[in-house]
Write a structure and sequence with these properties.
Radius of gyration: 24 Å
Number of helices: 11
Distance between the termini: 51 Å
CATH superfamily: MetI-like
Helix content: over 70%
CATH class: Mainly Alpha
Structural class: mainly alpha
CATH architecture: Orthogonal Bundle
Oligomer: single chain
Largest sheet: none
CATH topology: MetI-like fold
């Protein structure tokens, strides 16, 4: 074998080799999530039919070239409803994670930095909040403010704050007690500078992992709320609402709508958990 061949062999870390080192399930999960993000953006543009258009001549039509996943109880195209329902299904959990993540990180850093009675008081408050399941909080909020998109998102954001803050607080306290923080304090560095340039970047791996996993749980919660009829209302649609709308048809032998939406929910949640697990291994983060 020539020197050129040896050099070429050493300089070809192919995409396939890298993918196998990461794990095919993780790669497939990442591709799946990227596709969903794209579908959420262009779903209404690529949907073959109007997801709200009734076609009473094609009620419960089976899969065909005209309707790849069939139609529902009013003749609406199931594939079109899945595509259009992707955006609200992902947008709600994304807002939950962003709001809860921002507040949770701020609380965790404040508790770790100030400590003492402030930490003890907020810890008790978070424990009380943690005792109430997110979906129960969302149901209460919907009963007060009405069904829709905003009330469940705000309620779940509040419910997810203690989950994120409690986990990050422990890691923030560890970082707060490391020697580099004391050295920066002696050098006269301001708390804001230490937070932004040292403490927060060192916590970024665990923040990322926690937000990814929380996103998967938020998808389940938002879908459950829609399934109960407390989220988006018809003619709007998301995956949870599709499962609920198609449930009566399951008994009649037409499970296409419910199964399609349920399968997509399960695949998405599993994909996010696989990505979270892989990130946790990569960053050596202990998930709780």
């Amino acid at each position: 074998m020539s020197v050129a061949q040896l050099a070429a062999g050493r300089s070809t870390p192919s995409v396939l080799r890298r993918a196998s080192s990461v794990g095919w399930l993780t790669v497939a999960s990442t591709v799946w999530m990227l596709v969903l993000v794209i579908v959420a953006v262009i779903g209404p543009l690529v949907a073959p039919y109007d997801p709200t258009a009734l076609d009473l001549m094609n009620v419960y039509a089976g899969p065909s070239s005209a309707h790849l996943l069939g139609t529902d109880e009013t003749g609406r195209d199931i594939l079109s409803r899945l595509l259009v329902g992707t955006a609200p299904t992902l947008a709600g959990p994304a807002l939950v994670v962003l709001i809860a993540g921002a507040v949770g990180v701020l609380l965790a850093l404040s508790m770790a930095w100030l400590g003492g009675r402030f930490d003890a008081f907020l810890s008790r408050v978070l424990d009380i909040m943690f005792a109430f399941p997110g979906i129960i909080v969302a149901i209460v909020a919907v009963s007060i403010f009405g069904a829709g998109f905003i009330a469940p998102v705000i309620a779940l954001s509040i419910a997810y704050i203690p989950i994120i803050a409690r986990i990050l607080r422990t890691s923030a306290i560890r970082q707060r007690n490391l020697p580099y923080i004391a050295a920066l304090t002696v050098q006269g560095a301001s708390p804001a500078r230490m937070w932004l340039t040292h403490l927060l970047p060192n916590l970024l791996p665990i923040i990322t992992v926690q937000l990814v996993v929380s996103f998967s749980y938020a998808i389940l919660d938002i879908s459950a709320i829609s399934y109960l009829g407390l989220g988006l209302q018809p003619p709007a649609t998301d995956w949870g609402l599709m499962v609920a709308s198609g449930q009566p048809a399951v008994i009649a032998g037409h499970p296409g709508q419910s199964i399609s939406a349920a399968v997509v929910i399960v695949i998405t949640v599993v994909a996010l958990n696989l990505i979270g697990d892989r990130l946790g291994e990569h960053f050596d983060v202990e998930q709780r």
